[in-house]
Amino acid sequence: MEAVPARARAYVACVVLGALACLLPPPAPRTPWWAMTLLAVLYAGGEWLARRRFPGTFYPVLLAGVFLLPPPAAALVALPGALLSPAGRRPARLRRIWRAAELVIAVWAAGRAFRALGGRDAVAACDVPHALGPAAGAVVVFCAVLTVLDGGILVAAERRPARRAWRGLFLRSLAPVGVHGLAGLMMAVLWRSPYGPVAALLVLLPMGVSWWAFAQYHRERGAHQATIRALVQAVDIKDGYTRGHSERVGQASMMIARELGMDDERVEVLRFAGILHDVGKLGVPTRLLRKDGPLTPEERRVIELHPEYGHEMVRGISFLGEARAAVLHHHERLDGSGYPYGLVGRQIPEPARVVAVADAFDAMTSTRSYSRARPVPVALEELERCAGRQFDPVMVAALVRAVRRAGWDPVVTADGVRPPRVPRPVTGRTGADR
């Protein structure tokens, strides 16, 4: 079993106690136990299927319980599904307990909000327009509770800074949970209508179709990721000194793209570009990649062919889009002194200008056979010094802002040992030229 920090276990224990409090007092005798049992079975089956087949979770039935049942009874609906669904990673038991506890609290709070806003009477009257407002309020409360609890576990278990733990969690969950909430409301209204529970269950059919389409998309995305992962692993095996470099350049490229306000699709493309920028090294002799000391002019010319090799390798991979241009041009310089084509200024594609900065930054903050790692502030100063001549000043400024705000995980060398932070004299070499 993986070690879990004591403070994370204590946090989980507190959330479990809160969940137990939400289940008290027990549901009243007039609670429709058969309805609660049916919803619990449906949720457990849907959650099990979602965890195994789909990249998500199954909330429509759970939220239908929020709209149909008293809060403690609706909270009970979540228990079987959370406790029996696949946990993913270890420790499985603790993860299931945590999942069950946070869902009980979120469902209970959403149920209380729904009733306080008058949603119970609207659903009983099958009045959809008047039920929409309370349902929206319940969805917001549900997402807010999950956001607070999930951010807390990130702080407790992963020691993530508090200012970053909650960033984006609420907004990312609101849209998908809102769609599930609408389906749950339709189920609740049909359940209360003369057509009864059978009609309510029909709502799950279009949800199933949409999930199937969603799953197809994610399977294709998974195949893309597997393709990239295989290429990167091949480079890491061939050039052991830069192991992990590609992933870090992908991360830095993504930070720059987000700082520049690019949309999610372009951010993903820039991440691919950073990860694959050195894939052309598969075409370079291993003895040159692993050579200690300086390269001869002839050896350097061979190394400088790797962008063209890489572009040939990825040219037929359509989903990479403009990332292919970054693979080819990430060693170009604004003043025209780069390679392979000596492009100048805006002739260099934007993704290549992003990756060039990310590549140089990680090269300077990594220990390799021919250079020792520089501290992050020194590397940022060097990038700023070279901005306008070697690097695009806009990209440099974006990385500087992102790193100073969010920080940068220190380098890990090929053997997994963190090197000492030894400053080097500032020179014209950024470390990304090899």
Rounded to an integer in angstroms, the radius of gyration calculated over CA atoms is: 27 Å
Query: Number of helical runs?
Result: 20
Q: Which fold name is given in CATH as the topology of the largest domain?
A: Arp2/3 complex 21 kDa subunit ARPC3
Order of helices and strands: HHHHHHHHHHHHHHHHHHHH
Question: Helical residue percent?
Answer: 55-70%
The CA-CA distance between the termini, in Å, is: 42 Å
Number of domains: 2
Beta-strand proportion: under 5%
Number of strands: 0
- Which architecture of the largest domain does the CATH hierarchy give at level 2? Orthogonal Bundle
Biggest sheet statistics: none
Pfam family, one: HD_5
Organism: Streptomyces cinereospinus
Transmembrane segments: 6-24, 31-50, 62-85, 135-157, 169-191, 197-215
Keywords: Hydrolase, Membrane, Transmembrane, Transmembrane helix
